[in-house]
Amino acid sequence: MDSLIKLFFLILLISSLIFGKINGVEISSLNHHHHRHLSGPKKLFVFGDSYADTGNIKKPHAVSWRVPYGITFPGKPSGRFSDGRVSTDFLARLLGIKTPFAYLWKDYVGKERLRYGMNFAYGGTGVFNTKSTSPNMTIQINLFEQLLGDIYSQSDLSFSLALVSVAGNDYSNYLALNRSIAALPIFIKQVVDQTELNLRRIHVLGVKKIAIPSLQPLGCLPLYTSSQGCNETYNALVNYHNSLLEQVVAKLNNETNHSTFAIIDFYNAFLTVFKNKGENPESKMFETPLKPCCEGSCGNVDEKDANKYTLCDDPESAFFWDGLHPTQQGWESIYSVLGKALSASLLKL
């Protein structure tokens, strides 16, 4: 009972902290448009986690390299945590460039193929250390910095965009360690403060435009939902994270006197897709959006090689692929909702 009372007061605290949004923050809204502007970014550099990873974990250390991952695209596991394309692929398409290669494979392709940028994102990682084997955001930026002057020049960076994907691994790790829920708002502030340092560093290194998604509604991920629907306690915490992130972006843009930093509004885009009953033509309608296509221990088998998961008949009918990650069709819907305003905010350098 004491823990329930603490949770109740925690929600009240967070609600008071996020009361009143920060005005003047550049946030993508909910329209659809794909247009390549001639002066837009020519390279995409990606930092983050499994929402953006396109193959940086060595085989076979992650389920992203196991069947049935990748069954929609490219037809076999490719290191993406989905049945097909992920956030990075759709953002690259919006920019009118090819998906940048994963850092792990940079030595296996010619420099010509690296002209679209590079992806340093690594599934399971966070702003801080989440796993001993996962390079956190700071390490990923270190890897990027080591390539400057060799593979990429300062003039390259002046026509580039960075995606900084933070999808909640710091918080899931925090909860897994049974740390105090009452102290979580303090930790959220630490995560956003470190994110600010990361954004400043990427900008100082020379990247012209930096996009960071707001945190998606974690309480609506299948792993955390219940028969009552989304976990609104988790979503209240997400709203606090996002309100702090908005303040940081507003401050950074004020300092640079330029719309250098842009928030990609994943939170509202996810909710828009979930709530679509057919009235929003920009977004596909999913009958049961919170039900994953791959249920159970997706990608794993038992000692007799029997699947420890069940698979839906059509991944395109599902928004979520597994307990945490959207399907390719889910990501398609997210970027369709973000659409025109996202293009407008990111294609101007």
Tell me what the structure shows.
The chain has 349 residues and is an alpha/beta fold. The chain has one domain: Rossmann fold. Helices cover 35% and strands 11% of the residues. It has helices spanning 2-17, 87-95, 137-147, 154-157, 169-176, 184-204, 232-256, 266-275, 328-346; strands spanning 43-47, 101-102, 117-119, 160-164, 209-213, 261-264, 294-301, 307-311. The strands form two sheets. It has a six-stranded parallel sheet, with helices on both faces. The protein has a two-stranded antiparallel sheet with strand order 7-8. A hairpin with a 5-residue loop joins strand 7 (294-301) and strand 8 (307-311). The protein is globular, with a radius of gyration of 19 Å. Mean pLDDT is 89; it is low at 15-38.
